[in-house]
Design a protein that fits this description.
- The complex is a heterodimer of chains A (246) and B (166).
- Chain A has 246 residues and is an alpha/beta fold.
- Chain A is 24% helix and 40% strand.
- Chain A has helices at residues 3-23, 34-52, 66-84; strands at residues 54-58, 87-90, 103-107, 110-120, 123-135, 138-142, 148-153, 161-167, 172-178, 183-188, 191-196, 203-209, 214-219, 222-227, 237-241.
- In chain A, the strands form two sheets. Chain A has a nine-stranded mixed beta sheet with strand order 2-5-4-1-10-11-7-13-14, sandwiched between helices.
- The longest helix of chain A is centred in the N-terminal third of the chain and has 21 residues, at 3-23.
- The radius of gyration of chain A is 24 Å and the shape is elongated.
- The N and C termini of chain A lie far apart (49 Å).
- Chain B is mainly α and 166 residues long.
- Chain B is 70% helix and 0% strand.
- Chain B has a single domain, classed as PhyR, sigma-like (SL) domain (Butyryl-CoA Dehydrogenase, subunit A, domain 3, Up-down Bundle), CATH 1.20.140.
- Chain B is globular.
- Chain B has helices spanning 3-22, 25-41, 50-71, 73-77, 96-110, 114-124, 129-136, 140-158.
- In chain B, α5 (96-110) crosses α8, α6 crosses α8 (140-158) and α7 packs across α8 (140-158).
- The N and C termini of chain B lie far apart (42 Å).
- The A-B interface holds A 1, 5, 8-9, 11-13, 15-17, 19-20, 22-25, 27-28, 30-34, 36-37, 40-41, 44, 156-158, 198-199, 243, 246 and B 1-5, 7-8, 11-12, 15-16, 19-20, 25, 29, 32-33, 36-37, 39-41, 43, 47, 85-86, 88, 98, 101-102, 104-106, 120, 123-124, 144, 147-148, 151-152, 154-155, 158, 160-162, 166.
């Protein structure tokens, strides 16, 4: 195309842009089709949920620190033990690290994957077990370190809630309780990381020992809520709307 | 980014695109809502390029909607309240000149093929040739040729080569 022809195309494009702007109708107030979306995704969400539920236990960055290393060993051992009885396949089968059990996994319905990644100097020890039969999601229970309990939600969602409850005893637990979407629960020494999908509306319930001094909720890297369990020890519940977070 | 945030960010430009593409303001509104229902149902794997995905889906939805609309042409004749983009509801603020311009632009755009219209209107929305090529299923190289050809066709109907307007 010659320069003259190129210039002509650009001139016509500019003229067309101007005409289009002049002819555009006013933009009406278009409502977000929330109800249609809810109806359209209700059935499919159950299917995706079953295919994707996963619980992941990973080591935090401070894996070299002895208490953290011990905690990971405990987590790996107990999750491995819980899953081993019903596993259908396995990508690696190292001997589980020694240590007392502090983490238990209670499957619900459908199939799920338990993945324990133990990062250490020189490599990563990974145990991955797919459990079939009747489990969709499940509840992971673990004993967090003392002090603050931190719940990190990777990103806001279309909808769904994060319910936080204080509970008697020493164990914390986390579960996906429905809604649409998929997520991974990553258990860390000081709390929980929820690796979620921004287009999901999954609900989460996290139970935290009431002995914890404070509970921090962070979404998309920002601390969104700081919750302080009452000194009376009364069971308390907070609900964070994951769809309303901006 | 949540679905509601994506809607807030993109629905105006999608409406503008769909209204230009279909020539029907009512249909364009339906197209925008359908696009976001599809986004919820089958979100793209690559969230970074969601804008291109939205326009690609809007094109598909608009084409389907227009074909369905044409099949209902007989019914439309018995439904005079539903007016296309070029014939808006009576509004004293809208001049007869503007109505005439809308009609001419709409008819000129409808004279293009669906692919030509999509290419030209996505360019208006600032997409690169590579993104347009992906959306309409052609090569990047041919997008420039298609734009030039579409403008050539429009220039006859809209007098795009005039110095001071059509």
């Amino acid at each position: 195309m010659s320069q003259d022809e190129t210039d002509l195309v650009y001139a016509r494009a500019r003229r067309l842009s101007s005409l289009l702007r002049d002819a555009d109708p006013p933009v009406p107030a278009i409502t977000f089709p929330a109800e249609r979306i809810a109806r359209a995704t209700r059935h499919r969400s159950v299917v995706r949920w079953r295919a994707a539920a996963a619980i992941v236990l990973v080591a935090a960055g401070a894996v070299g620190v002895k208490p953290v290393r011990a905690w990971i060993a405990q987590a790996a051992r107990t999750v491995w033990t819980a899953a081993a009885g019903r596993r259908t396949s396995r990508s690696a089968e190292p001997a589980p690290p020694a240590g007392a059990g502090a983490v238990t996994f209670v499957p619900a319905a459908g199939s799920f994957t338990v993945r324990v990644a133990h990062r250490q100097a020189g490599g990563t020890l990974t145990i991955e077990t797919t459990v079939g039969a009747a489990a969709t999601a499940g509840t992971v229970t673990f004993k967090p370190a003392a002090g603050s309990f931190v719940i990190r939600v990777v990103r806001p969602q279309v909808g769904g809630t994060l319910t936080i409850e204080t509970t008697p005893g020493e164990a914390a637990s986390a579960a996906l309780t429905g809604g649409r979407g998929e997520a991974e629960l990553v258990v860390l020494p000081d709390g929980l990381r929820i690796v979620n999908d921004s287009l999901s509306s999954t609900n989460f319930v996290v139970k935290v020992p009431r002995r914890m001094a404070r509970i921090e909720v962070g979404i998309a890297g920002r601390t969104t809520r700081v919750l302080v369990p009452p000194a009376s020890g009364a069971v308390t519940r907070w609900v964070v709307d994951l769809g309303a977070v901006r | 980014m949540s679905l509601a945030e994506l809607f807030a960010r993109h629905h105006v430009e999608l409406y503008r695109y769909a209204a230009r593409f279909t020539g029907d303001a009512d249909l364009a509104e339906d197209v925008v809502q359908d696009v976001f229902v599809r986004l919820a149902e089958r979100p793209p794997a690559d969230e970074e390029h969601v804008r291109g995905w939205l326009f690609r889906v809007a094109t598909t939805v608009a084409v389907d909607a227009m074909r369905t609309s044409r099949r209902r042409a007989v019914l439309a004749r018995a439904w005079p309240d539903r007016m296309p983009m070029g014939d808006p509801a009576p509004d004293p603020a809208v001049s007869a000149e503007r109505s005439e311009l809308r009609r001419r632009v709409r008819e000129a755009l409808q004279g293009l093929s669906e692919k030509e219209r999509a290419v030209l209107l996505m360019r208006e929305e600032g997409f690169a040739h590579r993104e347009i090529a992906q959306a309409v299923g052609t090569t990047t190289k041919s997008v420039g040729t298609m734009i030039a050809r579409a403008l050539e066709k429009l220039s006859r109907r809209l007098d795009l080569d005039a110095e001071d307007g059509p």
